[in-house]
Amino acid sequence: MSTAIATPKRGAEEQATLVGGGGKLKHHHPLTPYALCAPYLLLLLTFVLGPAIFGIWISLHNWDFMLPNKPFIGLQNYKDLFDSTSVIFSPFWRGMRATAIFTVASVPFLVIIPLAIAVLLNRKFRARAFFRAMIFAPFVLGIAVVGVLFNYLLDAQFGLINYLIGVIGVDPIGWIQTLPWAWISLVGMTVWWTLGFNTVIYLAGLGNIPAEQYEAAELDGAGAWGKFAYVTVPGLRTVLVFIVTTTILASANMFGQSYLVTKGGPSDSTRTAIMVMTEEGLRQFKMGTASAMSYILAICLGLISIINFALMRERNK
Amino acid sequence: MSTTEAEARAVQPDSAEPAPSKRSYARERNGPVFWIGMIILALIFITPILWMYVTAFRSQSDSRRIPLTLIPDGLTLRAFRFIFSDTQNPVLMWALNSLIAATAHAVLVLIVASMAAYALARMQFKGRGLIFGLIISTLFVPSFIFLMPNYLLMDRLGWLDTLLALIVPGAAGAFGVFFLRQFFVGIPRELEESALIDGANTWDILTKIVLPISKSSLVTLAVLSFLSNWNDFIWPIFVLFSPERLTLPAGLSTLNGAFTTDYPLIMAGATIASVPVLILYIFVQRYIIEGVATSGLKG
Lengths: 317, 299
Prior knowledge:
A: about 325 residues; mainly alpha; about 0% strand; B: about 300 residues
């Protein structure tokens, strides 16, 4: 990048700083980049980096909002979470279990159904843009609207879903009050709500697969399935890794669906880890235990992400 | 067919739209099965939303008929009249709060993220790698980690039960900087260099050249920030408590708890929370979908 050939109109010292190494513009005062970054960095330090460290500090104290002083107790909060005789042990691990159940039950649907829809929407047809926009629309509504809407749709007496299955002769189902229906409801509404998000990412990935690869596969005699298995899936490799990872993280963060629809029931079985954590920390104000919970859940998610990456890379070889 | 396409591509090798050739494998004709599938898909997505709007205009007894009737007896504004005049649940106030918080948040994100992203994309300075690394690393930290410490921070700052708690902390998210930096890196340098030779300073280059040609990215970021703030649920339900301070999602949650089976009323609240974003979505859906797609591909 020999931009230095620009006509030397200006003063010599400005010329000298015009082009730095690596092709970066270097016309500015040395402090300019810091000044430009400063407002964002101030926010980052105050609301992200600082709190991440402060959270560890909280978790090492008996940080009860009601206590006048918050004594340092070392790792006691963490020990309590692993001690089956402590009060918090059972709610916490039930919450972790609920989060695990939801993640395992929802991720396959959230990975596979959007892929199928993306392949369909990748065909050429009229109203393609309309369909794409339509399946993304629920995501724009947000969980509060989707939550109260499904709370109504799933109502055993007055809900539209029991009415519709009644039309085809199925008895009413206690979607919210019974198991496993409560889980099926939560997974179903999550699929309805977030399916468009993954579909749009798949569609972008499909658009990047060169048509020549499909033509070559066709010449080799591949049918629709062959093309899907040997061209589409390998072509979506990086997109798949991204989608699986972000979907696992999003499912592990599940909160609003349970909070608004099942309210954690029946008998706390759908009370997720985030619900237990916020109840403990932001309703009972036992911040120490709640912070310890958040770090344990974060470490679990970190481990899952690492395993996920390792598995995906293995398979790609 | 493929030869004509290859020719077409050979004629204009620098075509900015190579998309048609890339999708050409899907040139099979779409039969009735395909269209039936599409119609079912459309019904699954449209019916719940329509049902929400229809129910909002029904009377309570009409919505509680057994068996249920699909066609309303008649339409009434009862639910809207009630929630517009209910001092315990000031829905219009919630809508105003949501609008103020989401707009202020989007503006703040645009300002701080565009400045930082420009420095990170175009300038060389000590610590640039470190700063960028820090920003990227925060993308991998789950957000629930920040609930407790930021709640205590809001308490210390006196921001609990104020919209500042919704506007400011979220602007520290890494997405905006990351997203704009990707875009700025791709802008050809020539424009900035010629402006430089004409004597423009960094601020002029950023505000008069870089930002105007980045308009579509800025709109995308603004819309995504606005929407995520408008829809934010877990944070507002804990940091806001007074009825007149809530945003729509937090308010909907209290309506849901207070009026359990008065569904027309709750659906009226959901209507007020959803109509503005759906209208916004109709106008800018291209930006939203492309923004999500590119961030997904690069992430």
